[in-house]
Write a structure and sequence with these properties.
The chain has about 600 residues and is an alpha+beta fold. The chain has helices at about 60-65, 120-125, 130, 135-160, 200-205, 245-265, 280-285, 305, 310-315, 335-350, 370-375, 380-390, 405-420, 460-465, 495-505, 510-525, 540-545, 575-585; strands at about 20-30, 35-45, 45-55, 70-80, 95-105, 160-165, 180-185, 190-195, 210-220, 235-240, 275-280, 300, 325-330, 355-360, 365-370, 395-400, 430-435, 440-445, 450, 475-480, 485-490, 530-540. Helices cover about 30% and strands about 25% of the residues. Strand 20 and strand 21 form a beta hairpin. Helix 5 (about 200-205) crosses helix 16 and helix 15 (about 495-505) runs antiparallel to helix 16 (about 510-525). The radius of gyration is 30 Å and the shape is globular. It comes from Paracoccus aerius.
Length: about 600
């Protein structure tokens, strides 16, 4: 017999009754039933119930066991009584009567329990992640992640893509986040960067003549953490294709992503209709460039009904250039109680409140508008708003006003809150949308022009488009949104040096700087570059949605905490003086 096991803890069934077996695993829990001890023995594959009575040679050793001790047991497989069968376990028809027991790895007292679903502070869980990973839900999430990645690889190979690996130590690149810099020992004073994405390399792969590339790529960005974003590193499905337009990329990636969600989504419906929504339209209707389309609410501009009206706050606001009033319909939300709840939500968001109108049945049986805005605005404009939004008795509408860039994000969150509160959002399904026509440039806080998205994208209209107002230039850039999350970002690439130089010039990069920072790619484009494009899908975020988790750390094996610290390994750590001398670096004291 093998030194440690003849079977795993998930193998044994009624067909093994009477056999002598050897199992190894962790003590999940110990139960004393008056002279009969039961141990739930757990390994990667499952759980088996082990028992010993006072006649068993293993009884004395079993009585001393502590939870999470690793043991090896020998014993006989017995059928359970019919009344004691556990249908929730694959091994639930049997139990193993222990005849011998050896402790392979004793356990200290646990800082957090593995058995049960008790909530423990995340800092404790991350410091003892190896214990946290033993918990069933987290273990299942990590196994789901592995299966998803395997399925991605199979699907990509089946579509004719070839997997290549790109460098981890490279040069800095403007991808929209801070780089992690790596000092060079051989070249003092110079630094490598960990790649924010394999962007330049995958484009060079296309220039080199490899037609369809993909990899499961690690990416590194020094970012502020969020529930759906790691502050240090993440993995993405990275792909690139030659001789393609935007629709070709969509057609290539949709079967992969849709197939994943159908395979691993637990039977939740996956909408196969992926609409194309222009970026400006997404912000107007949903207040977000990653809208949750499970929520049917669409915002509308209603400024004309308030211009010069009796509702002075909005009328005066609209006298300022670039302002508008936006309406958020709330079907079935027509009560003062709900309006008060939404006002409380707005105040939590830092606003004084949200104006509203709701419609109810009047004493004479007609539909009447209620609320301070309806009273100040008057019957005719109020009715026009109701007609425009398609609302009726029992419905409501909420208003936000000002410059769109100042209130759009709050309006989007309000739309989500209204959809959830009123039960309008269709839970337990997946709805996708391509967001297209992103602006190439944006104005920074100091009034300068900078890239708003991927700097290597082809502007719509080519070189001619770059001779006008940069803020009007749209790029062949696209994101895929699902249930309020961005899953994919991509673009058709700028493969012509003259267009690339002009695009970077508008963002404040002179030609010499472009040559210095992206010399390899510029050089390659001068030797016959094909039209090409691609995208990258966030694997961590995909698995988070499939696992129905709200926090991305629940699907990453060894994540950092919110302060970008590895509490288990003690990173970041202080370098030794010898390390600093080798790199010719000096750490300045804190100011």
């Amino acid at each position: 017999m093998h030194a440690y096991r003849s079977h795993t803890c998930g193998d044994l069934t009624a067909a093994h009754a009477g056999e002598t077996v050897r199992l190894s695993g962790w003590v999940h829990r110990v139960r004393d039933h008056g002279g009969v001890l039961f141990v739930d023995l757990r390994d990667h594959y499952g759980m088996t119930q082990v028992l010993a009575d006072s006649d068993s040679p293993a009884f004395a050793a079993m009585d001393k066991l502590r939870a999470e001790t690793v043991i090896r047991i020998d014993g006989r497989v017995k059928l359970r009584d019919a009344s004691l069968v556990n249908p929730k376990l694959p091994t639930g028809e049997i139990e193993v009567y222990a005849t011998d027991l050896e402790v392979l790895g004793p356990s200290d007292e646990l800082p957090l329990p593995v058995f049960g679903d008790q909530e423990y502070p995340e800092e404790t869980r991350l410091a003892y992640r190896f214990l946290d990973l033993r918990r069933e839900s987290l273990h299942n999430n990590i196994m789901l992640r592995s299966k998803v990645i395997r399925s991605i690889r199979n699907r990509m190979w089946d579509q004719g893509f070839t997997e290549f690996q790109t460098p981890i130590i490279t040069a800095s690149s403007p991808e929209g986040a801070r780089d992690f810099l790596v000092p060079s020992r051989l070249h003092p004073g110079k630094f490598y960067a960990l790649p924010q994405a394999p962007q330049q390399f995958k484009q060079l792969i296309m220039v080199a003549g490899f037609d369809k590339y993909f990899q499961i790529a690690p990416c590194f960005r020094d970012e502020d953490p969020r529930a759906d974003r790691s502050p240090t590193d993440f993995y993405q499905l990275d792909l690139e294709m030659s001789f393609v337009n935007q629709e070709d990329v969509f057609a290539a990636i949709q079967p992969v992503i849709q197939g994943l969600f159908e395979e691993f989504g637990g039977g939740r419906p996956v909408d196969a209709n992926w609409p194309r929504i222009p970026y400006a339209e997404a912000l107007l209707k949903y207040g977000s460039d990653k809208p949750d389309l499970r929520n049917p609410i669409e915002m509308q501009v209603v400024s004309d009904h308030f211009r010069g009206s009796g509702f002075g706050i909005f009328a005066k606001l609209l006298e300022q250039e670039g302002t508008e009033i936006r309406a958020i319909p709330a079907p079935t939300g027509g009560s003062r109680k709900f309006a008060d709840r939404m006002n409380a939500f707005a105040q939590r968001e830092g606003l004084p409140g949200m104006g509203y109108i709701f419609w109810r049945k009047a004493e004479d049986g007609s539909t009447e508008a209620a609320g301070p805005i309806a009273k100040a605005l008057g019957a005719e404009p109020t009715e026009a708003i109701r007609q425009q939004l398609g609302l009726g008795e029992g419905d409501a509408v909420f208003f936000l006003g000002g410059k769109p860039e100042q209130f759009e994000a709050v309006a989007g969150r309000a739309r989500n809150e209204i959809g959830r509160e009123l039960g309008l959002t269709q839970e337990n399904q997946f709805k996708f949308a391509w967001i297209v026509d992103f602006p190439m440039y944006e104005k920074t806080d100091d009034g300068k022009i900078d890239f708003s998205h991927n700097p290597f994208s082809m502007p719509q209209g080519g070189l001619d488009a770059l001779n006008g107002d940069p803020l009007q230039v749209k790029g062949y850039q696209y994101d895929l949104a699902c249930n309020g999350y961005e899953l994919i970002s991509g673009a058709i690439r700028n493969h012509k040096p003259e267009i690339m130089f002009k695009a970077f010039e508008l963002a404040g990069y002179p030609a010499a700087e472009v040559e210095k920072r992206f010399g390899g790619m510029v050089k390659a484009f001068r030797y016959g570059a094909p039209p090409h494009g691609g995208c990258a899908a966030g694997i961590d975020r995909i698995v988070m949605l499939l696992a129905d988790e709200q926090n991305i750390r629940q699907v990453i094996m060894f994540p950092m905490n919110q302060r970008a610290e590895d509490l288990m390994m003690g990173a970041p750590s202080e370098p030794t003086n010898e390390q600093l001398r080798d790199l010719r670096l000096r750490v300045l004291p804190k100011e």
